[in-house]
Amino acid sequence: MESGNPSKRPREEEEPEETAEEATQAAAPYQPPNDGKYDIIYADPAWDYSGRQMHLETTVTSTALHHYQTIPLQTLKTLDVPSISAKDCLLFMWTSSPHLEQAIELMKAWQFEYKTIAFVWDKVRTNPGYYTMSQCEICLVGKRKGGSIPKPRGARNARQFLSEMRTEHSAKPNEVRHRIELMFPLQRKIELFARTPTPNWSIWGNEVVNSIDIPWKT
Ligand SMILES: C[S@@+](CC[C@H](N)C(=O)[O-])C[C@H]1O[C@@H](n2cnc3c(N)ncnc32)[C@H](O)[C@@H]1O
Fold first, then answer.
1. Is residue 12 scored above 50 in pLDDT?
2. CATH of residue 57
3. Residues near ligand 1 with C-beta < 6 Å?
4. 55-114 pLDDT tens trace
5. 71 Cα: distance to centroid of ligand 1 (angstroms)
6. Structural domain count of the chain
7. Which of 119, 175, 201, 205 is packed most tightly, with the most Cβ within 10 A?
8. Which ligand 1 atom sits nearest the alpha carbon of residue 46?
9. Which residues make Cβ contacts (< 8 Å) with residue 195, sequence separation at least 6?
10. What is the DSSP secondary structure assignment for residue 119, as one 8-state letter?
11. How far is the CA of 33 from the centre of ligand 1 (A)?
12. Which range of residues forms the domain containing residue 64?
């Protein structure tokens, strides 16, 4: 039986007191950078499937269009991402396997050079495919043309692979954002086509309150 006398119980670790700076940071809403430029851009574009199903499920509700508005590649290219990119900037971009070519084309249009596959997400469950059963999505990384990898760098041992059961349509695992934060803790970050806010990140998309405006070039 637990002792009723608090002085007899083992002492719990005392919480360290919050510093004034930490308290201010916790209270202040996140401010986008003054110059509107970001070092890390994390994007999950609303790829257009031209009305086709993403995989061969029998229900028509599996198409992206049933969940959100999609954007043709030519239109995506006109989003003025270069105007929000710092000189040294990385673009992390999700793509489905059938959109790989389009994703690299889009990176080029946004003035980034494709570098490698940063993350491979094993969604644990399979979907039927035309060739093999589809199970993974990939997140590419590109570097701003003429720029370098943003410095200072954080963790250099982030894993490429993660295995996490998929949840609602198109939702990507938070773990990927977390790994990017570990890799680039001090950099200014924005998520494009976001559906939820993340502390200390700017966000932009038609389902969230945008941190900044990004023009579409005509
Ligand atoms: C693939 S989903 C993003 C999913 C998100 N990464 C997540 O983990 O939940 C694409 C998002 O882009 C949004 N979108 C579609 N058309 C848009 C537009 N013209 N401008 C901004 N966002 C748009 C969609 O509504 C959807 O929220």
1. no
2. 3.40.50.150
3. 44, 46, 68-69, 71, 170-172, 193, 195, 205-207
4. 444 344 455 667 899 999 999 999 999 999 999 999 999 999 999 999 999 999 999 999
5. 9
6. 1
7. 119
8. 10
9. 171, 205, 207, 208
10. E
11. 22
12. 35-204
